[in-house]
Specification:
By secondary structure, the chain is mostly helical. It is 77% helix and 0% strand. Helix 9 runs parallel beside helix 17. The longest helix has 36 residues.
Length: 449
């Protein structure tokens, strides 16, 4: 009976967390409030649960991942304020053209997220460009958030091997893998997500034209123009080269140094070095804008605090959940689920990412609790841990994009669109399709692995 009441507390606590986050309340106070609720129904001492389990879980996450959040935010802000990211995006648009409006928005998003730029930064950089593209193509601007989400929130965040996004780095801590884990599965996943997602967005554009829908100006949006004459013609390279540097320093440099017997880095150290390299290259290529560099670094540093606190507080909530009696029932249900451990992991990560509204937060909670058992079973079955890594990463990018997700709320706020107007496209391309793909690959690989 005690376990059942505790389980009920977990469910109610999660629902309360989702509801309050969806309403736009800060998870910094919502998460501990919901954690206290879970602790009470779980029979824990409130102060001990808050001061001990909650604070410890939050602090441990910050200690582990603050360098990556900090450097990633600084790197993204530098690319934004120097105009490097915008120059690259404009170059791609000039090559693709507004005739292919969806591709002209999606491809820059993919490149920037694969190059290590935070998806939150990508939203702010791409929206003004996408706004101009959809205006020229005479497409409803309410379709734009779906294209941005498709490019920024999924494929290059979780699927493409070697991506420096934190959702691909977290599993390395638990499975001893690298950012390029399970490349074959990764590429298949990227294809399975990319093709139906892109076709869906193109279909939505065709349907809009058939219905006679047109672009309507956003009265709240003020377009900012950049005087291209003040920038060198090659400035778009200052947006591309740092991205390449980050990817190469993350995936190529560490094994080279290891094989040469110079130094061996773990994934956390590798991502710090890679992002630092991207920052240095961005600064050097924009040295003529030296007056902007220090303010950009300061803005990025300040922004990183909010970003990591939001995620860390969600993890702190999970730290309380995993010590109450009801979680034992959930854990046993996951571990004893019919099918392979890959399918069990896909379900667990999807559910927790959805509950917290955070890909990295939900995945951290799931792996902190279940990864040791999954790894033990994988070793016993002769399964490559890289599959566990990739499935965890893929699953984190599914249900996380439910309506209360922070990135979704930011995207809709920036684009001045409502959930009713634009969430359907976000849901189909960044939630439904990735969930289906993660579960499908987990099922198939669980049979053939």
């Amino acid at each position: 009976m005690e376990s059942f009441v505790s389980l009920l507390g977990i469910v109610i606590g999660l629902c309360l967390l989702i509801y309050l986050a969806y309403k736009g309340h800060s998870i910094i106070w919502v998460a501990p409030l919901c954690a206290v609720f879970v602790a009470v129904l779980g029979g824990l001492n409130i102060l001990e649960a808050y001061m001990g389990d909650y604070i410890r879980g939050t602090a441990d996450y910050i200690v582990s991942w603050f360098p990556a959040f900090f450097l990633g935010a600084v790197y993204g802000k530098l690319m934004d304020m120097t105009g490097s990211a915008r120059s690259l995006a404009n170059k791609l648009v000039s090559l693709i053209g507004a005739k292919f409006a969806v591709a002209a928005v999606v491809i820059p998003c993919l490149l920037m997220t694969y190059g290590g730029i935070s998806l939150f930064v990508v939203v702010f950089v791409i929206y003004p460009m996408g706004y101009a593209i959809y205006r020229e193509a005479d497409l409803p601007r309410t379709l734009l958030p779906g294209a941005i989400a498709f490019g920024a929130f999924g494929i290059t965040m979780t699927a493409i091997p070697g991506t420096p996004q934190i959702q691909n780095i977290i599993p390395t801590k638990y499975y001893g893998t690298t950012a390029a884990a399970a490349p074959v599965m990764s590429i298949i996943a990227a294809i399975l997500i990319a093709i139906p997602g892109y076709l869906y967005l193109e279909w939505r554009c065709r349907e809009a034209r058939k219905k006679g829908l047109h672009f309507e100006e956003d009265k709240k949006f003020v377009e900012k123009t950049i005087d291209a004459s003040l920038l060198p013609k090659w400035h778009w390279l200052s947006g591309l080269i740092p991205l390449i540097v980050v990817v190469l320093m993350l995936n190529v440099l560490p094994p080279v140094l290891k094989n040469a017997g110079i130094v061996e880095w773990d994934a956390n150290q590798s991502i710090v070095v890679a992002l630092a390299g991207g920052i240095i290259v961005t600064c050097l290529m924009n040295i003529r804008q030296f007056k902007i560099l220090l303010p950009a670094i300061s803005d990025g540093a300040n922004g990183s605090l909010t970003a990591i606190m939001n995620t860390a507080c969600a993890v702190g909530f999970g730290s309380v959940v995993k010590v109450v009696p009801g979680f034992t029932l959930l854990k046993n249900a996951m571990l004893n689920m019919p099918g392979s451990i890959l399918f069990s992991e896909a379900v667990a990560v999807n559910v927790l990412a959805g509950a917290t509204g955070s890909a990295s937060g939900g995945m951290s909670i799931a792996l902190e609790t279940l990864a040791p058992q999954y790894l033990e079973k994988a070793v016993a079955e002769g399964m490559n841990p890289e599959y566990l890594h990739r499935i965890a990463s893929l699953a984190s990018g599914g249900l996380d994009t439910l309506p209360h997700n922070g990135a979704v709320l930011t995207l809709l706020a920036v684009s001045h669109c409502t959930h009713k107007e634009s969430y359907l496209d976000i849901c189909v391309t960044s939630c439904i399709i990735p969930v289906i793909v993660s579960l499908l690959l987990a099922f198939v690989w669980g049979i053939i692995a």
